[in-house]
Structures are given as structure tokens and as C-alpha cells.
Amino acid sequence: MSSVTLTAKAIRRSLLAVAATSVATTGLFSSAVIAADDEKVERIEVTGSRIQRQDMETASPVTVISAEAIRAEGFTSVDELLQAQTSMAGAALGSSSNNGSDGVAQVDLRGMGSQRTLVLLNGRRMVNSGSGADSSVDLNSIPVAMIARVEILKDGASAVYGSDAIAGVVNIITKKDFEGFQLDLNGSTTSESDGETAEISGLYGFNTDSGNYTFGAAYSKREGVIQSDRDWTDPGYSSYLPTGSLDGMVQDGAGGWEERSTGYDYTTSSYYQTPNERYSLFANMVQEFDNDIVLTADALYTKRKSDQQLAPQPASVMLDVCDSDSDSSCVTLTDEMTEAGISADETGRVEYRRRITDAGPRIYSQDTDTFRISAGLAGELDINNGMNWDVAYTYGKNKAESSVANSINATNLSESVYANQDAWFSGDALTTEIVDDISYTDNADGGNEQHVFSAGLNGDLFDVSAGTVAFAIGAEYRYESGYYNPDPVTVAGDSTAAQQDATDGNYDVISVFQEVSVPFTDKLTGEFALRYDDYSTFGKASTWKVGLTYEATDDLMLRGVAATGFRAPSISELYGGDTGSYDYLEDPWGNEEDSQILVRYTSDEDLQAEESDSYTAGLVYSPSYVEGLSLTVDYWRFKVTNAITRLDVQAGLDACYADASSSSCETFNIGSNGDLSNLTSSLTNVGSQDTSGIDFNLAYSFSALTLDWKINNDTTYLLNFEQEGIDYTNMIDGNFGAYAEVRNNFNIQAGQDDWNVMYSNRYIGEMEDLSTGDDVDAVLYHNIAGTYHVSEMITLSAGVKNITDEEPSSVSNGSDGGTVPEVYDTVGRQYYGGVSVKF
User: Fold this and answer.
1) CA 750 to CA 706: how far, in whole Å?
2) pLDDT tens by residue, 259-273
3) According to the model, what pLDDT value does residue 77 have?
4) Which ranges constitute the DSSP H helices of 84-163?
5) Are 583 and 599 in contact (CB under 8 A)?
6) Where's the TonB-dependent receptor plug domain (predicted)?
7) Do residues 240 and 185 lie in contact, with contact meaning Cβ atoms separated by under 8 Å?
8) Residue 95 to residues 91, 106, 323, Cα–Cα distance (Å)
């Protein structure tokens, strides 16, 4: 990934260029023109601070990803480009998440959880989106075509932005101040001739005497990739067979019964890349009025249609055994069955399992609509030292309809077995009549809504010997609501899928905040922020931030930040109805043969806010004796306490197995002799996280051999990641993803006039398999891309990702296909290309 970590001179150079054509907004790179000695001086606002000022040196590291870099490297979605960054970890949901994702795409900065990374659009909050009552932003709702650049603030920023910014901020800046018409066509395919993507987008903008209006539209489509279509995929194993099994025994084809010896391969139905189709409309406007008041507004609408596919429903029902002849409410065990060892348990029942292949695979579908509009007014107060004011309103709404075709009604299934015992136990295919009786389409709906009102004042307070003391103050009101209504069959507990209750709730928060920038000396500047939030749910929260920058020499700047943060419990955490989840777990008692075990998830209205402390310290070195070279090194640490979490169920199972009197048995509702029928995981505020590491960036631009060269290298070295007291450093697992000690991205470009060629690679270091302790191989992905400007109107681009078709590393307890698709490339070599035409 071609990115640059910016502060000091690098920020000043890049932002002043952007600001030269901007007007005042409350966005990321906003600018205001102020009077100073009869000259106009540009003022800019940068990520992590609301203070507008000419001097852009800040204490926090910011990574900038340009639209050109996004296109050059063939990214078709925001989540893909973000997860390629070395600062990401864990396993954020995205295009490779087939099981349980509902088609959403998220970002997971530092692997601390998507709910702890704040996503902004043009400097203002984005509505949470997905299937309903969601706790994070669905990045699918933001089309790549509208992005001018992406800013990643790798520092805690709750004192500036409020809740959710514990791990940092992703600020997506849209294209604006555009003039003319631009049409873009982009597409890709894999070396296996599947997984095709296509995108067409248009951008139109025009200037007036006092403003600019920019409009855009985009359509994209992504095809799926089936797991078994990759030769490295090991066949999946499931004890749920298409012929059915009774008490672990199957028909032998001759009227008898034998022990189950084979398993069902579910990889023939499951996706490595999920299908997705999106329609987007977006617009930006800037209008300056005669009284120097500026109106800015942006609007976005995205419709997403997505699918995931899993193997046909695995159905498990406990059947009552008749004492004598069978009737309509029990089954009779034949002599052949009893001779084979099939018998009722202590409750008088026997377990019947069957993979309902006759109904077809489970097809999960989502149809989501996300709408957001944001508008603001900004102007100047008639005060000599320059005061700027702004007011803004943002409204966001998301609604979704989701379904699961070929779901199975467990109640109807049991009744059907009782009524058609011979048909169910024969091992033969089920009749259409039986399939129609037991199958149905599960339908659900949900949504989210957001209102944000804000007002602020910023400018210069007074002069001191080293410069000017600047400030920003403001207030904000925010209202959030969400709901999710599962299918009535699921709510009633009649489905073979996990039972789930409805979710519905809302909260509001009133906030006040202030920032001050103080130049202590010509070289030392302090940044101070304080914020107070009052929530209708848990109550009050106060956060602060202190940052220092010290220009040791003209070439070297030192920087550091200490801050506190918080995350308010989300609607789903507070008001979410009880729901089931089939987690990848190992049963130490050996009662459960499958790796996926049903766990009951519960919420809690009395949850409190999470709290955090963050620290960063580093340097920026731009040696004057090497033109174009910049080095940054930053140490970072994040500590989260009072974290809202579900305790490690696997650890609870192991503890209860080792000691039947352990409190874990009660905590997780584990019954005697390892009875997991009521296994429960409750949300609680006893969680913790402690993670630290070092980021290193090298950027070098130079000319040689008649070519212009750019080299960029990003490295993240993870020193520590602990969660709930468990050390996950350099570990990988299907439940939580990967925390590699070393991640590295390297990029080198060479160009001349109208063409540019780029080679890049992405390295994920060797890790340890959490379940087995075995080494998981490192992987290095190689990519190449090229851009050619045919004329002022036409630009062509093409590239190959994963040139050597690297296979993903094997993970014993992987989330899918024997690996972790959210971490490794499971699609393989991809070819992509595009054309851009501008009039």
C-alpha cells in the first residue's frame, strides 16, 4: 500500500496545497481565510484537532492514502484498502467473511475491535449500518469512486471526537471542488476465471461565481468464489450427513446400521469471496454568500445487495422414544437399531442429525439502504484577532431487509420424522412434499438512525513571545437509535438455527469540548484537549489529551501524546435480544463432535462505558542533506479497562473441565458432565486490553536514470497484545484473527511524464497457532501495477495482485476453509484494469 505518515513539514506541504482551493468547513482539511497585516493567510484543520491554524505541525501520526494509490493498487472497496495497512490486526469483517457477516465491511485498527475505531466522513460522524442495531460503520456504504483520500489517525482521539475513537480515527474525504465530467470503468478477475469485479462511476462538477457543485454516481458488482474451487482447500468435515444419523449411527445400505465413518464436505457450498452489488449516489456543494458565510453540504445514498452461502442446514433434533408402538409424538427403535447400540438417553430421547441437502444450501441475502446528509454554515466574527464560527447538522439512516433461504423449521422437522419415520431413517432422499413442509425462508428487518447537531468557535486567543495561542470550543448533541426484528420462527425457537430475540433501543448524548494550542517556545508547542459527555444511558464521561511537539533541529521533530478515551455501550450491547452463535470451540469432555458449538449470547442494559489510556511517542526526521527523504518512528500503547466483552468461552470450558467446582462452570452455564445445552456468554464490563508496538515509515522521492522514483515502506512491530489477561501476541486463531509481530508493506514506483510503474509487496510474519502451538507460515504477497496517461482525457491502469498465487497459511482452528480468510488472501492471483476519461 502506498501511504505516507505525515506530520511537521510533510503535513504542511501536502495540506497547504489542498487548502489552496478550499473554503471553510468543519471537515478534515478545512480552511479559513483570515486577515493578518492586510494579507490573507490560509487556515487548515487536520485530523485529530478542531483548531484551524497556519502551522500544521501536530503531535499525532496520520497516514494518508490518496485516491490515485487506491486505484493504482486495484482496491474496489474501502475495507480492502484499510485492512492492507500494517496498523490493522485482528479479523475485521469484509468481502472474505462468509459466515455471520451479513455482508458488512469494517475496519479494525490495532486489532482492538471495529467498535473501537471511529469512522468519519468529511470530518463528521457516519451512521452505523448493516442489518440493524449495528455497532460499527459498514464501509460498503462508502463507494471508492467518491473518495479523494483516506486519513488514518493512529492515536486515541476521544477528547476531540467523543466515543469510539479509542484505537484511532479513519476519516474518509470525498471528492469536491471538481470541474468537468469524469467517467471511470474498472474490473478484475482471478487466474481461475472467477470472482470477477466490475465498477462504473461518473463524476460531474461545475463552478459558479461563488461556489462549486459536484455530483457522482457509482455501480459495482462482485462475484463469488467457492472454497472447493481452490486446490489448496482441504475438504471440510461435518458429522451432519445428507443420509441422516441416529445416535451417531447411519444406515449401511442393507437395512442395518453402522458407526458414522465419513463426514460431509461443506466447502463445496461456502464462499471465499462473497457476492456484492452496490448502487451509490453522492454530492458535495460549497456556496459562499455575500456576507462571507459559507454553506457546505454533502449527501450520500448507497443500496447494497449482498449474498453469502453456507452448506445446507445441519439439523439436530432430540426425538422422544416410544415405550411401545410408535405414534404421532415419538419414534420406535427397531431391532436393527437397538442391535446397533442405538438407545434413548436418560431423558428418554435420542438425537437425530441430518444435513438437509434436499432443500439446498443456505443462501443469506441482504438488501440495505444507507442515506446520509450533512450540512454546515461557517463564517467569521468581526474581531481583530480572527474568530471563526461553524454550525452543522448530520442525519443518517440505514434500513435493511435480510433473509436466509432454505432454512429449516425444527418443530416441523420433528413432527415430520414422527409421521414419516421410514422416509427419514432410510437414508434416501426426502420427497418434495417433506422438504416443502420443513423448509422456509427466514426474513428479518432492521435499521439505524442518527442525528447530530454541533456548533463551534475557533481562532486566536492572544499572542505570547513564541507565537499565538489558538483555541477551539464547541458543543454537540447526538441521538442514536437502532432495531432488529428476527423472523417469527427464529424468535419462537422453532428454527434449527439459533433462537434470537428482537432488539430495539435508543440513547442521546450532550457534549462540550475545548482545545488549546500553546507555543511555549519557538521549538516547543503544547496541545491540550478536554471533553465532557453526558449520556442518557450510563451517565457522564470526561476525557483529556495532552500532546507535545519539539523541533529539535530543522531536520528533526520529536512528538508525544498522552490521552484518555472511552466507548459508550452500543444499542445492541444494551438492548440486544438474546441470540445464539455457533462458535468454533473444542469440547474437552468430547460430548460435542463438531467444532461449532451453540453459545447463547446475552446483553445488559446496565453496561457502563469502556475506558482507555493511550500513549504515543516518536520522531520525524527529514534530513536536509538527502532531499526527499523522510523517516518516522512511533511507539504506541493502548490500555482499555472496564471493556465490554464476552469472556473467553474456550478458557471457561477448559477451566470447568479441569475443576468441576470452578466458578467458570456457573459463569458459562456448563452443566454436569460437560452438558453444553445451555452454554451462555454474557456481556460484561470486566474485560481489558493492553497492546503496544512500534510503527516505522520510510518515504523517499528522488530522480535517477531520467526517471522519477518513489519508495515507501511501512512496518508495524507488535510488542504486546493482551486481552482479558490472555497473551495473544504473535498468535492466530479463527475466533479472533491474527496478531502478527511483524507486518510490512513495501512500495517502489518509477515514472516519467505520462507513465508510471509500481511494484509492491505485503508481508505477514510467522505466527503461532493458538490451538496447537504449531508455527503458522509467514506469507509475502507480490503485486505490480502500471498507469499510462494516453492524453489529457484518457488514463489507463492495469495490474496483478498476488503475482505468485501464494496460498494462505493453514490454521487448525481457522474461521473458514482451514485458514482465516480475513487475514490471508484466499482468492489467489487477480488481474485488474481500468480506464478513466475526463472531459
Assistant:
1) 10
2) 887 889 999 999 999
3) 87
4) 158-161
5) yes
6) 56-169
7) no
8) 12, 10, 52
